Amino acid sequence: MKADFIGAANGAKFQFGYNGNNNVTVELYEFNPDNLNETAKAVQDEVKNKGTFTIMSQQVPAVLSDSGKFLMIYKDSTTSDENKARAEEVKKLVQEFKK
Question: What's the whole-model pTM score?
């Protein structure tokens, strides 16, 4: 997804394996919290309230950092308990990231 689709200034997508073969996709987006456009405000409000946002008629699970500067979409196609625990750990770290 292009960063400007959600009102972000920058974005990057990574794919890697965690206990599997290329089973994790992480998208990271950076916002300017002091200068959010209407799209960014809407996305951030949705994520704060529901833990998801809507794009192209799809609900996308996401985590917003407490500072409002970073948003992460984390997808793991493996559903083992270990992978689920890792996903929750990563989401918590992103949410608590203050810079």
Answer: 0.92
Please give the Cα distance from 58 to 98 (Å, whole number). 29
Task: Name the phi and psi angles at 12, rounded to 5.
Answer: -150, 150
Neighbour-count burial of 8, counting CB atoms closer than 10 A to its CB (0-12 exposed, 13-18 middle, 19+ buried): buried
Output the six-digit token pair for 12. Answer: 């990057």
80 CB contacts (<8 Å, ≥6 apart)?
19
Q: Which residue has the tokens 């990563």?
A: 90
Q: How far apart (Å, rounded) are the C-alpha atoms in residues 87 and 2? A: 23
What averages of pLDDT result for each successive group of 10 residues across the chain (99 residues)?
Answer: 93 93 94 96 97 95 96 95 95 89
Query: Where are the strands (E) in the chain, listed by range?
Result: 10-16, 24-30, 52-55, 58-61, 63-64, 70-76
Q: What is the CA radius of gyration of the chain?
A: 13
